[in-house]
Amino acid sequence: MFDFETRRDRLRKRLRREGFGSILVTNPVNVTYLTGFTGEDSYLFVHDDDCILLSDGRFEVQLKEECRGLETYIRPLGKNIQQAAQHVLQTHGGQVAFEADSLSVADWESISDGLRGVELAGTRGLVEELRQIKDREEIAALRLAIRHAERGFEALRASLRPEMTEIEAAHFLEAAMRSFGAEGFSFPPIVAGGPRAALPHAQPTRQSIGETSFLLVDWGARSPLYRSDLTRVLATDRIPPKLKRIYGVVFEAQARAIDAIRPGVTCDEIDALARKVIAKAGFGKQFNHGLGHGLGMDIHEAPRLARQSAQILRSGMVVTVEPGIYIPGWGGVRIEDDILVTRSGHEVLTRLSRNWDDAVVDW
After folding, report:
1. What is the edge-to-edge ordering of all strands in the sheet holding 94-99?
2. In 3-state terms, what secondary structure has residue 324?
3. pLDDT tens digits, one per residue of 49-89
4. Does 156 share its domain with 242?
5. Helix (H/G/I), strand (E/B), else coil: 346
6. 13 CB contacts (<8 Å, ≥6 apart)?
């Protein structure tokens, strides 16, 4: 499904531009991105003319299934992964890049201690930069993850009852997504009613949904390696006029930002458009996070739609756009969708309605 060899070739080209002949990849998500291997406790050594996946005996069968044709080094019993890396690096020699954002100081010391003729040089973001631009297969995987998430939400919306608790709603949502084919959730769902919706990362409680007049749900599905991320607000009782007004402000802020997404625009420009709408409505201080983030194998990856994020949007990037207003003691409203940057502009990958009328639940 995914062309891992092409990804590794792109990494080699990037390494040559940076003056390196090889790299030790230790971030598990990056290892998966470059090989398709979904196990843990494994490193990947990428060289000019070869590639070795370092792992252990627990994964020998899995490696053959997921990484056919890829050279592997299975560490001997009694040797840890750092010692396996030391062995492979010593065999090749020269200057080796490593992922400074992933490898701890203790693990770096374990690998470098005793190496001869090998220089370890810390780098940042080499693989992550490649991951920002999604190819056709990755976009298809993201579409699938979005569909599973949307079908799960539609099932939850149809099943909501006043006596259902936030935790029960979160569990129902996860089960529904799995029943529609998702491998799991992107992250533990956020289900927060009324005042608790003022917490952008609220954890579900045993509070009954019927105790509040509205509900914020932030969720996503993982299918198979890629993740979706959406947020909707549902009005569950008599609708406070303040809720409808704030919903309208957030809706407009998101629409302005989405309309402006296209190649060549900077991330902070998009963030500023949404922030201007919210500030003009008098809620500037209540929008206390960035507008959005990249989406892919990680739920949060580059690029970031935020203040002081001058990165330029490029075709193939997928980002969330999720403005919000949070008022302690009252609650919060956030609307989030997943957007693909195309050659001529953008495509909204999510299909769930954002209209106010569709946010109102009829018990």
Report:
1. 71-74, 51-55, 43-47, 22-25, 94-99, 118-123
2. strand
3. 889 999 999 999 999 999 999 999 999 999 999 999 999 99
4. yes
5. strand
6. none
For residues 109 and 159, membership in a common domain is answered with no
Residue with tokens 């919060």: 332
Answer whether residue 166 shows pLDDT above 90. Answer: yes
pLDDT in tens, 282-316: 999 999 999 999 999 999 999 999 999 999 999 99
Same domain, 167 and 248: yes
- In whole angstroms, give the CA distance from residue 108 to residue 117: 16
How far apart CA 328 and CA 194 sit, in angstroms, is 10
pTM: 0.95
By DSSP bridging, strand 230-235 and strand 43-47 are unpaired
What is the residue type of 34?
A: L
CA neighbor of 317 nearest in space, from 252, 363, 249, 261: 261
Q: In whole angstroms, how far apart are CA 15 and each of 97, 214, 302?
A: 8, 51, 19
Instruction: Give residue-wise pLDDT tens across range 252-280.
Output: 999 999 999 999 999 999 999 999 999 99
Q: How far apart are CA 204 and CA 169, in angstroms?
A: 9
